């Protein structure tokens, strides 16, 4: 099991992805665990090595007795990345995780490449509210605060439509150690960063939920965005767990911020790389060998803009983009391009079942004759692929 002992506290973590990718650390809210980030992981892994961990008092990490401090939570994270040999990383923290992120940006800015502060605050509400919550969980267990927490985690619409993540979040909350939860309540009770936000020099994105009653934009997110020099902000139609209520929009905002490239950077190199990855070296080498003075500008155009600008956008994964291309090529009768993407797709990220679904969709919206031709070509390419 992936555990690391930091000081006298054992932390549970997951490190996923290729070691040659930049590292992104994801830090969860109070009352959840590293599973909070499950909707983001698949879309982030092609771009980052991802480190998720259970904050002390949560999940499979130790839950020492007593009040915790933001210094402890911040040093826990620094001890974890040190144990894993990670020198620099981007950091995304939601709620309590955002408090850790603010601490890191002040105490260890040299370790951070970028900072995302989601549904968080420089101050987390009146001290007496946290004292009440501490007494409630220590006296009555986690059941005592579940109704309140769920109403803050999710907006009423998500609760009424039984959002797919509701039961999982509720289960994790109920399974949280009351001692650990109370310890982290003390962190949020005592946290106050407003006096030094202007000292933060790490590139920062603030994400807020318009339906978040725990850390609303006014008085919380807007303070972070205003006081942190150069901070950007994004507001989503969500409550406190905005990454669950708007998972695609949250991930898109995160990727757009983390992958913002200098305007002067030419996408030709990236386009050539992804063109080779998607179509294969043999095809690209043939296309390059056949290029002459008459076609050179055209080849550069499609490499720079089609491959280097559109195919590299992080909003859709490559499998989805490939399937969209196949559906459009079938609808337009561009069978040479269709065959090319079928063969290349089968050699990389597509399976026969993917082709079947695309062509059944095409049969309804582009016509049976188009789908019939598509099935014929796909069958030939599947047989060729063996």
Describe this structure in words.
It is elongated, with a radius of gyration of 24 Å. By secondary structure, the protein is α/β, with parallel strands linked by helices. The longest helix has 18 residues, at 368-385. The protein is built from 18 helices and eight strands. Strands 1-2-4-3-5-6-7-8 form an eight-stranded mixed beta sheet, with helices on both faces.
User: Main beta sheet: strand number and arrangement?
Assistant: 8 strands, mixed
Strand content: 5-15%
Q: Provide the structure class.
A: alpha/beta
Q: Write down the Rg.
A: 24 Å
Number of strands: 8
Number of helices: 18
**How far do the termini sit from each other?**
38 Å
Strands of the widest sheet, in order across it, are 1-2-4-3-5-6-7-8
The stretches of 5 or more residues where confidence is low (pLDDT under 50) are none
How much helix is in the residues? 40-55%
Shape: elongated
Q: What is the arithmetic mean of pLDDT?
A: 95
Helix and strand sequence: EEEHEHEHEHHHHHEHEHHHHHHHHH
């Amino acid at each position: 099991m992936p555990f690391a002992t930091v000081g006298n506290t054992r932390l549970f973590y997951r490190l996923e992805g290729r070691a040659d990718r930049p590292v992104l650390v994801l830090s969860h809210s109070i009352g959840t665990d590293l599973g909070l980030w499950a909707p983001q992981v698949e879309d982030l892994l092609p771009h980052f090595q991802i480190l998720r961990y259970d904050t002390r008092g949560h999940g499979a990490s130790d839950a020492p007795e007593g009040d915790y401090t933001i210094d402890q939570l911040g040093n826990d994270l620094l001890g974890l990345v040190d144990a894993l040999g990670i020198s620099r990383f981007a950091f995304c923290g939601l709620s309590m995780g955002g408090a850790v992120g603010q601490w890191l940006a002040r105490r260890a800015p040299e370790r951070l490449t970028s900072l995302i502060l989601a549904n968080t605050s420089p101050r987390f509400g009146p001290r007496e509210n946290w004292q009440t919550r501490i007494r409630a969980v220590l006296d009555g267990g986690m059941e005592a605060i579940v109704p309140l927490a769920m109403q803050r985690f999710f907006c009423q619409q998500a609760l009424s439509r039984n959002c797919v993540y509701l039961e999982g979040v509720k289960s994790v909350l109920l399974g949280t150690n009351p001692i650990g939860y109370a310890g982290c309540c003390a962190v949020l009770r005592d946290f106050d960063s407003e006096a030094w936000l202007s000292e933060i020099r790490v590139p920062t994105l603030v994400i807020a939920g318009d339906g978040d009653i725990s850390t609303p934009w006014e008085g919380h997110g807007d303070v972070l965005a205003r006081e942190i020099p150069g901070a950007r902000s994004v507001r989503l139609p969500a409550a406190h767990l905005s990454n669950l209520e708007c998972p695609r929009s949250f991930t898109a905002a995160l990727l757009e911020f983390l992958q913002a490239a200098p305007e002067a950077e030419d996408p030709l190199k990236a386009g050539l790389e992804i063109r080779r990855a998607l179509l294969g070296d043999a095809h690209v080498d043939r296309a390059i060998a056949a290029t002459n003075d008459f076609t050179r500008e055209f080849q550069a155009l499609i490499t720079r803009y089609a491959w280097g600008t559109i195919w590299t956008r992080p909003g859709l994964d490559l499998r989805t983009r490939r399937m969209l291309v196949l559906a459009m090529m079938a609808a337009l009768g561009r069978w040479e391009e269709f065959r090319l993407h079928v063969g290349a797709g089968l050699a990389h990220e597509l399976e026969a079942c993917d082709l079947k679904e695309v062509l059944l969709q095409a049969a309804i919206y582009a016509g049976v004759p188009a789908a019939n031709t598509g099935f014929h070509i796909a069958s030939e390419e599947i047989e060729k692929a063996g």
